[in-house]
Amino acid sequence: MTAIAVERAVLAACRGVGVTFGRGDARVSALRDVDLLVAHDDSLALWGRSGSGKTTLLHVLGGLVEPTEGSVERRGRGHSVAYVFQGANLLPHFTAYENVAFARWAAGLGPRDADTEELLGLVGLDDKLESLPAELSGGEAQRVAVARALAQRPELLLCDEPTGHLDSGTGERVLDLIDALKKELGFALVIATHDADVAGRLDRVAVLRDGRVEQ
After folding, report:
1. What is the pLDDT of residues 154-201, one digit of tens each?
2. How confident is the model over 46-104, as pLDDT tens digits?
3. Which of 53, 88, 161, 173 could form a disulfide with 145 if both were Cys (CB 3.0 to 4.6 A apart)?
């Protein structure tokens, strides 16, 4: 592959990135001199203990946090990044269908009923369209969160401890679902996790310690 083709394949590139929060005695370096590339077909784990900087790096990749040192280059169309967080964080008074449809509307994609229903069908919830979040199990709610993220048609899906609030069996099923959808829909995937088993499921692992990528 030529150098030009490699560059075109890159969705996000961190170069010498550092992130510092606070001032004076409260100053904390969350990231230090991080170099990292995420390509279109990537399956990447950001693995480390709590406080290692993995969530901050995830947010830098998605544009939620801007670096205080270094630079980040992001490529792709608008609304190209979507998030799945540790908790589903669904709108409590919206049904499963409305949570997903609202995400499509917010991304400027329009409220096409067929697309919303298809996404909920892909995550195995076509029988839960009218269910409120309080009526869903933890695993079902997280699957709605996955559908909501994919409703934005992202090129890059960022997941922050997506199985952290789930039991091991349900967590495995959610990860299996994300993996199957990645293969079907073709987005790049980055998961921040402290769980070595979760990290081991992905093609690449960036190990973080004290704000640095060690390997």
Report:
1. 999 999 999 888 888 999 999 999 999 999 889 999 999 999 999 999
2. 999 999 999 999 999 999 999 999 999 987 655 589 999 988 999 999 999 999 999 88
3. 88
Instruction: Identify the CATH homologous superfamily for domain 41-62+77-213.
Output: P-loop containing nucleotide triphosphate hydrolases (3.40.50.300)
Residue 207 to residue 123: CA distance in whole angstroms:
30
Distances (CA, A) of 24 to 20, 29, 68, 196: 11, 12, 15, 35
Quick one: pLDDT band at residue 36, thresholds 50, 70, 90? very high
Cα–Cα distance measured from residue 25 to residue 71, given in angstroms and rounded to the nearest whole number = 26
Domain boundaries, the chain: 41-62+77-213
